[in-house]
Write a structure and sequence with these properties.
Elements: E1 19-24, E2 27-32, H1 37-43, E3 69-70, E4 89-91, H2 95-110, H3 126-133, E5 166-168, H4 178-187, E6 193-195, E7 202-204, H5 220-224, E8 230-232, H6 233-238, E9 243-248, E10 257-263, E11 266-272, H7 285-289, E12 304-305, E13 314-315, H8 318-336, E14 341-345, H9 351-365, E15 370-372, H10 379-388, E16 406-410, H11 414-417, H12 419-430, E17 434-438, E18 447-448, E19 451-452, E20 455-457, H13 464-477, H14 483-489, H15 492-502, H16 509-516, H17 520-532, E21 536-540, H18 542-545, H19 550-563, E22 574-576, H20 583-588, E23 595-596, E24 600-601, H21 605-615, H22 627-636, E25 641-645, H23 649-652, H24 656-664, E26 668-673, E27 685-688, E28 697-700, E29 705-709, H25 721-732, H26 741-751, H27 760-766, E30 768-770, E31 814-819, E32 844-847, H28 849-854, E33 862-866, E34 871-878, E35 886-890, E36 918-924, H29 930-941, H30 948-956
Parallel strand pairs: 1-4, 14-15, 14-25, 16-17, 16-21, 17-20, 21-22, 25-26, 26-27, 31-35, 32-34
Antiparallel strand pairs: 1-2, 3-4, 5-8, 6-7, 9-10, 10-11, 12-13, 12-27, 18-19, 23-24, 28-29, 29-30, 31-36, 32-35, 33-34, 33-36
Length: about 950
C-alpha cells in the first residue's frame, strides 16, 4: 500500500451541458464551460505551478505563480482566474514565464524559514515542491530583511499551540489566503481573517488564539494550507505517513469518507477523502481528529467474566468467555423458556455485524427478541415514511440540498449534530436559498455569519403535530397545493379525506397557537414560502422523532411534501438526519423484532421461508420484544438474558432507574464493546469489541449510501465484532461459517431485494452506492420516488394532534428538552476519551435569563434538575438561546445522568422515547444528587478488574 494522492485541478470542477475546446501547449482540450485554464490544463495532464489555488476553493489569483500566455492577449494572466474559451491557444511554459515564476518564488522564499529538513511538512510541502518546479537555485533578495522569520525579528509572532489537534506557525505563513477561504467557502464559520498589511499580514483567528476563537476545528484550514503554517500535531510528533486506506467515519449519520494515513499500524492522521460522495473532502472535528479513543488506555482488550455484578471482573480466554455466555443462555432458556433471552444490535457497528446479531437471535435463540438503538431515535422515521411513501428512509442524497430554493429544518441542529452536511447547507443558504427553522432553541442556523433564517418558529416542545397541521392548513385553504402532482402521484380519495380534515378551522395557525406558542402570521408566512418558494427540502432530526407523536409528525411532513409536489425532484424531499453512523444500516439489516432485512415483516410466510431455506433454521412468525418490553419483562421476572453489541442502554435509554432495574434483574448480560460502559456495570460476560479502524465491513448513512469500512490495524482484542458473534453462535449450537465480511454482505444481498446489486467489488469500483441497488438500479438510487412512489400512490395520513401526557404544573413548571453539541457524540464513550472534551468538559443546563432570575440562578451555579422520574445536579448556563419556560441539556457525560430525568412516555407507534418533553423544576443546590453520589461509588465498585495476583489466589482457594 502507498499514500493515496488525489488530483488537485486547482479550481473547482465545473458541471455544464456546454463545452469549450481550446489548445494548451499544442494539445486540444475539451472541458465544460466555466472551467478555468488551470483546470483545463490539468485535464490534459499539465500541472501549472500554483500556491494559492486548490480545487476545493474558488479561484483567488493572489500568488501569481500560475501565469500563462494566451495568444492574442496582452500580458500574462493568472490561469486560475481565467475561464477557458473556445479557440483559445494557451502556453504554460516558455522562458518569460519561467523567469516570472522564479522571481515570484524568490520573493516568497526571502521571507520564509529555510528549516526544511526539520520542518514538519518536509515531504508534504507545496512551497518546497514549487521551488523545485520553477528551478529556484538562489534568492537575490537575501534572507535577513524586514521579515517575520527569526524569533529575534520585530515582526516575529510565536507559534500558537492552543488547539489540541494542530499548530499555527505564523513564521511559515505565505498569506495565500487558502485557510481563510476554506473557513469561509467550505466550512462557513468565517473564523479566520488576514490581519495587517504588507509584511505585517498574517492569518488571525480573530483577536484571540485558535482554541478560544470561533474556530470549530473542522480541519479545513489545515487541509488547505500549502506549508507547515497549519499542521497536525501528530505530524509534528510522528512524521509523515507512508501508506493509506480509504474508510468511513464512525461518528454521525453523514458517513464521511477518510483516508486513514498510517505508519505501520499507527494512524498518523485522518484526511477527508475528496472522492467521498457524502463529504466531498470536508470533515468535522470528530471525524478529522477525534479518533484517539481507538487506542485509548481504557480499551478492554481481554475477555472477562464474573458471577455477580458486585464481583470484580476476571480476565479469561476467548474460549472460556464464549463458553460461559453460551452455557448461561442455554441454562436460562431451559429454565425460563426460549423467549427469556434476546439481543441488541448496534448502530455503531457495521451492517454485517448487525445482520449477524439479529441472525443469532432468530436462528440460535429461536425468537425475534432483537432490537437496536434506532428504537430510541429514528424508529418513527421508518414507520412514518413507510406508511406514506412506502420505504423507511430519506428521499434524497445530501448533494440535493445544493438545488434547494427553500430549506425547512425541523427539530435538528445540523451545524452541531451533522456538521459536514450543515456546512453544505450553509453554503446553499449563502447562495440565496431561503431558510425556515422550527426549533424551541435559537440554533446557530437561526443567525450566524452570513446566514439568517427567514423564519424562526420557536414552537413549544411537544407541539410538533399541531405545528405541522397548521402549516398544512394554510397550504390547503390558501390553494397552495400542486394539484397536478397530487392527481398524478397520490391516492386521490385519501388526499381528499386528508384535505377535508386539515382544512377544519381547528387546525388553523390561530387555533393551534394555544399549543405551539407561535405567531400565526409567522406560521402563515412560512407555509407560503415552503409551498411556493421553489424546490423545498425538509431536513429533520430527533426533535421530530423523540416525541409521543413522532410517527405522526413524520407522516405530517410527508403530507405537506406530497401536497406541494416536493418529493421526487432535486432540492426537495423529506430527509432524516440520522444520529449515528449506521442507524440506517442497523434498521435495514432486520434489527427490529417485527422485521427481517429490507423491512419485511416476520409474519410474511414467503419472506420467512426464504430466510429459513438459507439459514437452515425454523423462524418464529410472531414479533419479538422491543428494548422497552425486554426491560419490563425483566423487572417482572420473565426475561433473564441479553447479548448487547456496541450499545450502552444504561446511559442512552430513558428513565435510568427503570433501565438499571431491568438490567439488575437479569441473570446473564453479555456486553461486546470497546470500553466498560455504563451497561457493562450490570454485565456478567465482557467480550472486547473492535473499533472502526480494526474491521472490514460497510456503514449505511442517512442518505442510504453504503460505504466501505476498511481495516487498517489488527483488532486489539484479538477478534472483530463479527467474529465474536460467530463464536457465540457456534457455541450455542447454531453453525455460522464466514471467512470475511464480504461473504456476509453476499448473503445479505441474496436475501434482501433492495441490496441484490451490492457487493464489495461494486463498492470498491464505485466508492459507494445508495440502495435500492438491484437489477432496476444497478448503480444505486440517489433520489427516491422520482416517477412513482415505492408504494405506488402516495398516501396521505390523518394526523390528529394529541397532547403528550407529560404536562407541566406547579411542581414541575418547566419543560426540559435535550440535544447534542458539536465536540461530543452520543453517550460520549468515544469523544470523552479524546481532546474534544476540552471544549465540553461537562453537560450544563441552558436556562433563559427570565427563568434564571426568577430562581436566583446565575451563570455557573450548581442547580438541581428534578422531574417525576428523578433528579440530578449540573451547572447552569444562562442563555437567550432558550425561550422562557424551556430548559435544555446534553447527555454526553455519564456522570451527569441526563436520562435519570427523562420519563417512560414514548411514541404511540414505535415506543421511541419522548426525550424532548420532560416536565421539570430547577433550583439552586450545593451538592450532587443522590443518584450521582451512587454513580460515583458504583463507577468504582462495579467496574473493578481483578489483577493477575488476585486471580491466582482465587484459583488456589
Amino acid at each position: 500500500m502507498a499514500l493515496i494522492k488525489e488530483i488537485d485541478y486547482g479550481t473547482p470542477i465545473r458541471v455544464s451541458a456546454q463545452t469549450v475546446t481550446l489548445t494548451i501547449d499544442g494539445m486540444s482540450v475539451t472541458v465544460p464551460a466555466g472551467t478555468s485554464v488551470m483546470a483545463a490544463a490539468m485535464h490534459a495532464g499539465t500541472q501549472i505551478p500554483k500556491l494559492c489555488a486548490t480545487d476545493s476553493l474558488e479561484p483567488f489569483g493572489s500568488c501569481r505563480l500560475c501565469l500563462v500566455e494566451i495568444e492574442g492577449r496582452r500580458g500574462t494572466p493568472a490561469s486560475c482566474t481565467t475561464p477557458a474559451e473556445n479557440g483559445m491557444v494557451v502556453h504554460t511554459q516558455n522562458e518569460k514565464l519561467a523567469k516570472l515564476r522564479k522571481g515570484v518564488m524568490e520573493l516568497y522564499i526571502s521571507d520564509h524559514p529555510l528549516t526544511c529538513l526539520t520542518c514538519a511538512a518536509n515531504g508534504d510541502c507545496e512551497l518546497q515542491d514549487m521551488a523545485g518546479v520553477v528551478g529556484l537555485r538562489d534568492v537575490r533578495y537575501g534572507y535577513e530583511g524586514d521579515n517575520h522569520v527569526a524569533p529575534t525579528a520585530e515582526k516575529y509572532l510565536p507559534k500558537d499551540e492552543s488547539n489540541p489537534y494542530f499548530t499555527y506557525d505564523p513564521s511559515k505563513c505565505i498569506v495565500c489566503n487558502r485557510c481563510v477561504r476554506a473557513c469561509e467557502e467550505v466550512q462557513g464559520t468565517f473564523a479566520l481573517t488576514i490581519a495587517g498589511r504588507g509584511f505585517d499580514s498574517r492569518v488571525a483567528a480573530g483577536p484571540t488564539n485558535f482554541f478560544e476563537s470561533e474556530c470549530v476545528s473542522c480541519g479545513a484550514c489545515v487541509q488547505a494550507c500549502p506549508t507547515a503554517t497549519l499542521q497536525e500535531k501528530t505530524i509534528h510528533a510522528f512524521g509523515q505517513p507512508e501508506h493509506a486506506e480509504v474508510t468511513t467515519c464512525a461518528y454521525c449519520g453523514v458517513g464521511c469518507s477518510f483516508k486513514a494515513e498510517m505508519q505501520g499500524e499507527r494512524v498518523v492522521r485522518m484526511v477527508p477523502f475528496k472522492g467521498g460522495k457524502a463529504n466531498e473532502g470536508h470533515s468535522c472535528v470528530k471525524g478529522r481528529f477525534a479518533y484517539g479513543y481507538a487506542t485509548h488506555k481504557d480499551r478492554i482488550t481481554k475477555p472477562m467474566i464474573r458471577e455477580k455484578i458486585t464481583d470484580p471482573w476476571r480476565e479469561v480466554s476467548w474460549e472460556e468467555a464464549i463458553d460461559r455466555a453460551a452455557s448461561e443462555f442455554k441454562r436460562i432458556q431451559a429454565k425460563y423458556g426460549k423467549d427469556s433471552v434476546g439481543g441488541i444490535t448496534s448502530s455503531r457497528c457495521t451492517n454485517e455485524e448487525a445482520y449477524l446479531v439479529q441472525k443469532l437471535v432468530r436462528a440460535a435463540f429461536g425468537n425475534n427478541n432483537v432490537d437496536t438503538c434506532a428504537r430510541v431515535c429514528h424508529s418513527p422515521t421508518g414507520y412514518g415514511l413507510m406508511s406514506t411513501l412506502g420505504t423507511s428512509a430519506g428521499t434524497q442524497d445530501f448533494k440535493s440540498v445544493e438545488n434547494s430554493d427553500v430549506i425547512l429544518v425541523i427539530g435538528a441542529n445540523p451545524t452541531d449534530g451533522h456538521p459536514v452536511f450543515g456546512s453544505r447547507m450553509k453554503k446553499r443558504l449563502r447562495q440565496g436559498a431561503k431558510l425556515i427553522v422550527a426549533d424551541p432553541r435559537k440554533i446557530d442556523l437561526v443567525k450566524s455569519p452570513h446566514i439568517k433564517a427567514d423564519y424562526h418558529l420557536p414552537l413549544k416542545p411537544g407541539s410538533n403535530v399541531a405545528f405541522i397541521n397548521s402549516l398544512a392548513h394554510v397550504i390547503v385553504t390558501e390553494g397552495l397545493i400542486d394539484e397536478a402532482y397530487v392527481r398524478e402521484r397520490c391516492d386521490l380519495p385519501e388526499f381528499e379525506s386528508w384535505a377535508r380534515f386539515i382544512a377544519e378551522e381547528r387546525h388553523s395557525p390561530e387555533a393551534q397557537q394555544q399549543f405551539t406558542g407561535l405567531d400565526p402570521a409567522e406560521v402563515r408566512g412560512a407555509a407560503r414560502l415552503y409551498a411556493k418558494g421553489g424546490a423545498a427540502g425538509i431536513y429533520y432530526g430527533l426533535g421530530v422523532t423523540e416525541h409521543s407523536q413522532g410517527s405522526t409528525m413524520v407522516m405530517g411532513m410527508a403530507n405537506i411534501a406530497m401536497a406541494t409536489g416536493n418529493i421526487g425532484k432535486l432540492g426537495a424531499g423529506v430527509n432524516p438526519l440520522r444520529g449515528q453512523n449506521n442507524v440506517q444500516g442497523s434498521c435495514d439489516m432486520g434489527s427490529f423484532p417485527h422485521e427481517l432485512t429490507g423491512y419485511r415483516h416476520v409474519s410474511d410466510d414467503a419472506t420467512r421461508e426464504s430466510f429459513e431455506a438459507l439459514w437452515g433454521a425454523k423462524l418464529d412468525s410472531a414479533p419479538g420484544l422491543r428494548i422497552t418490553n425486554m426491560l419490563d419483562e425483566a423487572v417482572d421476572g420473565a426475561f433473564k438474558g441479553m447479548y448487547i453489541q456496541g450499545e450502552d442502554i444504561a446511559q442512552s435509554d430513558p428513565d435510568t432507574h427503570h433501565v438499571t432495574a431491568g438490567l439488575m434483574a437479569m441473570e446473564c448480560i453479555v456486553i461486546q464493546d470497546l470500553f466498560l460502559n455504563e451497561t457493562a456495570k450490570y454485565a456478567h460476560v465482557f467480550l472486547p469489541g473492535a473499533s472502526f479502524l480494526e474491521k472490514d465491513g460497510t456503514f449505511t448513512n442517512a442518505e442510504r449510501r453504503i460505504s466501505r469500512v476498511r481495516k487498517v490495524m489488527a483488532p486489539m482484542g484479538g477478534y472483530g465484532d463479527w467474529e465474536g458473534t460467530v463464536l457465540l453462535s457456534n457455541a450455542l449450537g447454531y453453525k455460522m461459517e464466514y471467512n470475511h465480511p464480504s461473504e456476509i454482505m453476499d448473503e445479505i444481498a441474496g436475501l434482501t431485494p433492495s441490496f441484490t446489486g451490492v457487493s464489495y467489488a461494486k463498492l470498491d469500483e464505485l466508492g459507494s452506492v445508495q440502495w435500492p441497488c438491484n437489477e432496476k438500479a444497478p448503480l444505486g438510487t440517489p433520489m427516491m420516488h422520482v416517477d412513482r412512489f415505492v408504494r405506488g400512490m402516495g398516501r396521505f395520513m390523518i394526523t390528529e394532534f394529541v397532547a403528550t401526557e407529560e404536562r407541566t404544573g406547579a411542581k414541575f413548571p418547566l419543560i426540559l428538552t435535550t440535544g447534542r453539541i458539536l465536540s461530543q457524540y452520543n453517550v460520549g464513550a468515544q469523544t470523552r476519551r479524546t481532546e474534544n472534551s476540552r471544549w465540553h468538559e461537562e453537560d450544563v443546563l441552558e436556562i433563559h435569563p427570565f427563568d434564571a432570575e426568577l430562581r436566583g440562578i446565575v451563570e455557573g451555579d450548581l442547580v438541581s434538575l428534578e422531574s417525576r422520574s428523578g433528579d440530578i445536579a449540573l451547572k447552569a448556563k444562562v442563555s437567550e438561546r432558550m425561550q422562557p419556560g424551556v430548559v435544555y441539556t446534553t447527555f454526553h457525560h455519564a456522570k451527569t445522568g441526563a436520562n435519570v430525568i427523562t420519563t417512560d412516555y414514548s411514541d404511540w407507534a414505535t415506543n421511541c422515547p419522548e426525550y424532548k418533553v420532560t416536565a421539570v423544576q430547577v433550583r439552586r443546590t450545593n451538592r450532587p444528587s443522590d443518584w450521582q453520589a451512587k454513580f460515583y461509588e458504583e463507577d468504582f465498585s462495579l467496574t473493578r478488574i481483578a489483577n493477575s495476583q488476585d486471580t491466582a489466589l482465587d484459583a488456589a482457594e
